[in-house]
Design brief:
Number of domains: 1
Helix content: 25-40%
Order of helices and strands: HEEEHEHEEE
Strand order of the largest sheet: 1-2-3-7-6-5-4
Number of strands: 7
Largest sheet: 7 strands, antiparallel
Distance between the termini: 35 Å
Strand content: 15-25%
């Protein structure tokens, strides 16, 4: 999906379309995993960069960082509002407990998310799955101070995030 100029569409509607796509997408089987730089998937999860701000390799000025934060936060707010209209109020999940637990395997996408953000908003879309289906997480994160600020969506199996 691209705009008339050949660039991918941006904005809340484009983010919601991407979310609908990953919710409908099956998880890879077995130990199979995929990563195309924007979406990573593995057994029981998908992680997607919905929107990336500017990187800060050449300019980490306060103005540039604040502008990027405001842009990503505005889209987060718009997408979160639309998801809340669909599925009700989200729960806030603290990601810090999942960060680098030694000798304890952390289920994905929680391991990846805990390295990028401190918390996420979680919705549990209705499904016909007797095991509870999937959860959808939305957060803002950053891999390192020079990297872009990202609006991230994650989908995981309900059993990974007891509710």
């Amino acid at each position: 999906m691209t705009t008339d100029s050949g660039t991918p569409p941006t904005g809340p509607d484009a983010s919601l379309a991407l979310i609908d796509d990953i919710l409908a997408r099956p998880f890879p089987a077995g130990e199979e995993s995929e990563d195309n730089g924007v979406r990573s998937s593995g057994p029981g999860h998908h992680l997607l960069i919905l929107r990336a701000g500017k990187d800060f390799w050449d300019d980490r000025s306060t103005e540039r960082v604040e502008e990027s934060e405001e842009e990503i936060e505005a889209e987060f707010s718009a997408v979160a509002t639309a998801l809340t209209e669909r599925w009700g109020e989200p729960e806030t999940v603290d990601l810090w407990p999942y960060l680098a637990q030694e000798d304890v395997p952390v289920a994905e996408p929680l391991g990846q998310l805990s390295n990028l953000a401190g918390s996420m908003q979680v919705w549990r879309p209705p499904s016909g799955d007797p095991d509870g289906g999937k959860w959808l997480g939305l957060t803002v994160g950053q891999a390192d101070p020079e990297f872009p600020i990202w609006l991230l969506a994650a989908v995981g199996e309900a059993a990974v995030l007891p509710g």
